[in-house]
Design brief:
The protein is mostly helical. The chain contains 14 helices and no strands.
């Protein structure tokens, strides 16, 4: 089992850390030993993250980061220290997210790559939903809401003049599972910018379609979906997403027969091209709920 493997790994990591500490104490000016010790401590911290021991993990990573910083203070070009520090930031960010420690997460958020930020946004949403299910988790609920805002702000601060850059944060604002964290109006602004930057992007248009749907502009949602499908004729996945957005929009217009037809198109596509991703499954289930289909 996973727990059994973690239990076996723990003494091995601990043994490695003890040996490396001895080397660092014996040869304090040798950078390699500090770098390796930091890496070993980080491996143990990741193990603790996987087993839910986030406080301990965070403390370990703080020590690991100090070791790499001490090496970089002497040699700013030490690539091994830089590489390890990058890994430490991820372990630290994960522990902070799970603990709901907004301030500490904010201190390293600018060092995380954008694709990772997208994952942390979804992670904050999951933590929010977990806290919401527990009445005594008000502090965690508030913290995860603030974390999500910090992450989205960092993502948007990095936006350039590329249409695709605006698509992911737009979807995060409109499609994050924790509905309370959504911001449909901001999603619409980002989607409009994506289309403005690339009028021929099928993805930008289906993002705009969802944005219009979330803002209850159902005719505009259908029109944007049609534009997306026309541009994405070579991309079958585009049709799947657009069928679902259109199905929900038609259902909201009380045109249930057309909504059911489009949902069936999407269902057939999922059978032929499955298994579908978690995101597509979430959209498919939302469409079924909007149309009133329980199966």
């Amino acid at each position: 089992s996973g727990k059994g493997q973690f239990a076996e790994a723990e003494p091995l990591f601990q043994s490695s850390i003890i040996k490396l500490r001895e080397l660092v104490n014996q040869y304090p000016t040798v950078a390699e030993y500090k770098v390796r010790l930091g890496g070993a401590i980080n491996n143990r911290a990741v193990l603790f993250n996987h087993t839910g021991r986030f406080e301990e993990s965070k403390a370990m990573v703080e020590e690991a980061m100090e070791l790499q910083h001490s090496v970089l203070a002497t040699n700013p070009n030490d690539m091994s220290a830089k590489r390890n520090l990058y890994n430490h930031c991820h372990a630290y960010a994960y522990a902070c997210m799970k603990l709901g420690e907004v301030h500490d997460f904010s201190t390293i958020v600018d060092k995380l790559p954008t694709p990772s930020l997208n994952s942390y946004a979804n992670g904050a949403s999951e933590c929010y939903l977990q806290a919401k299910a527990n009445p005594d988790q008000e502090r965690q609920l508030k913290a995860q809401s603030e974390l999500f805002a910090v992450i989205l702000t960092e993502i948007e601060d990095r936006l350039k003049d590329k249409s695709e850059d605006y698509i992911t944060p737009a979807w995060l604002h409109m499609f994050i599972p924790a509905i309370e964290l959504r911001d449909a109006e901001r999603g619409l602004e980002l989607a409009q910018k994506a289309v403005e930057l690339d009028q021929n992007s099928s993805s930008a248009w289906n993002t705009l379609a969802l944005a219009h749907y979330r803002n209850e502009s159902f005719d505009d949602a259908i029109e944007a979906s049609d534009r997306s499908m026309k541009l994405g004729e070579e991309d079958p996945e585009s049709s799947f997403v657009n069928w679902l957005i259109k199905a929900m929009a038609f259902a909201k217009k009380n045109e249930i027969a057309e909504a059911q037809r489009l949902l069936e198109n999407a269902r057939q596509w999922s059978i032929e091209h499955g298994p579908i991703s978690a995101g597509k499954t979430l959209l498919f289930n939302e469409a079924k709920e909007v149309i009133g289909i329980n199966k």
